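I am still getting used to backbone structure tokens and would like to learn alongside you. Would you supply a protein for us yourself, any chain you care to pick? Start from the sequence, derive the backbone structure tokens from it, and show both lines together. Go ahead whenever you are ready, and we will take it from there.
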Amino acid sequence: MTSPARASLPGTASPEAHALARAAGITVTVADLLARRGLTEPAELARFLDPKLSHLTPPDGMADRDAAAERIAFAIRQHEPIAIFGDYDCDGITSAAILTGILEALGGRPVPLLASRFDGGYGVSPAAVERIVATGAKLLVTCDCGSSDHATLTEVRAHGIDVIVIDHHLVPSEPLPAVAFLNPHRPECAFPYKGLASCGLVLSVGAAVRARLGQALDLRSWLDLVAIGTIADVAPLDGDNRALVRAGLRTLAEGRRPGVRALLELARVDATSALSGEDVAFRIAPRINAPGRLGRPDLALELLLAKSHEDARALGAAIERLSTERRSIQEKMIVEAVREIEEAGYHERPAIVIGREGWSHGIVGIVAGRLVSRYGKPVIAIGFEPGGHGRGSVRGPKGSRLHDALSQLGDVLDRFGGHQAAAGVEVRLSRLDALREAFERAIDSAPAIGSEDEHADTVWLHTSDTPARVLADVARLEPCGQGNPAPRVALRADVVAAREVKGGHLKLELELPGSQRMSGFGVSMGSRAGSLAGQVVVLGRLRRDAWRGGDAVEMRVEDVIAE
């Protein structure tokens, strides 16, 4: 009988893949992936492999773009203070930084502000209204929030402040009290590309303001922040986003922005080589998010707006301390959660609900995500305050219908919001057990929808291809991430050596056909070292071998299957 693991391995490269490799001058391995994705038409393939800013969709059909540009241009001409209010996550922070920088360069008087998890929460809260009014602004522009803030935006308008909302979240059924509402998901928005994150929308608005004022301003210098915000917000890396982020990664690698250079230095990112979506997602974005998770997101905004390298390094050092503190708190919370889950047997139930007094509600989202990866079940992780009020994050495996499940819990939850893949909740500590039972029942009644095969983006390393050539072609697929995952490679090899190294990780030395040698590194897989010998199939992601240097390649191992 074929084992489950063996059954999930990919088939061999098709004749179409071999033809594509010859026509495009790429490895059979990467051509196999592109053929599986249907990217075989020459013009479409060329556009995918070499996306350009000239490919961007014309913005003419974007609802309210002209109205927003006109009101902002008027504010600049009249020297009015303009309040820029961003969400506390990476997309909101980068959006606020982009708009602030562009308006300053165009002669405006922007006053940037951010929402706070710990003082008002998401969006334009009542606490945020006080801060906005205190700026003396005559115009408010929200970035990555505002779509559901009808009551507070009405209050802002009552203070004589016009409102422009720039957002990409759920569109409300009732009109917003705003002079302009930019959101590609509005039914009346004729802009055909719907995947822009708020940072991409803000850049487009900046271009419209520039045109309205008749000024010359090169907006490409803000593409580094567009790349960070788009990747961090898990926006699809196709269409316009692919062109914006590819160009943005090049700008990011140049490190001309003092705050970005400080981040690259702190994250020890080698900017001399091409940056990847993974570099941003796992090394840059978490540092920008760290201050907001612990209470002060403004620190990250100040870093991105820093004018000097000295200021940026000082701010970066403060953020790195917070990032280290965040990791420490996060790991402590995960250890506590795993212990309770396994002692109580929650992992044997349809879903997991876990919460404690004192847990940081700025970090519960990371904890929930880690628990989903560990147990493969929907998770609610909640941090409770001393008075018993709790705020939590909801995460689930691919295909989860979290919003459907939470919609059944109105008698247990104080509030909830989000979508099928991720959500947030508010609940009283006294209702924790009731929430656990109700969420388990709801998950049972809202089973996950079918998701893509786990190995849909797995291809065999073709015998005619060297790992170095394949890795060079993989770089042409960047930016990789949502909607364009990096390929996972399967290869047959003989295990030359396998050992457990510090931290419980696995270190492999492999011999490929043709006597090629490659090393492999498997996170938290060290316990398997003693059982690995002979010929195996190794699955994982190829990456540069920084230790050996040159064109050496190693594999980040995800699985090893004995032959």
In short: The chain has a mean pLDDT of 91. Residues 309-344 form the longest helix (36 residues). Residues 4-50+454-562 form a domain with the OB fold (Dihydrolipoamide Acetyltransferase, E2P) fold (CATH 2.40.50.460).
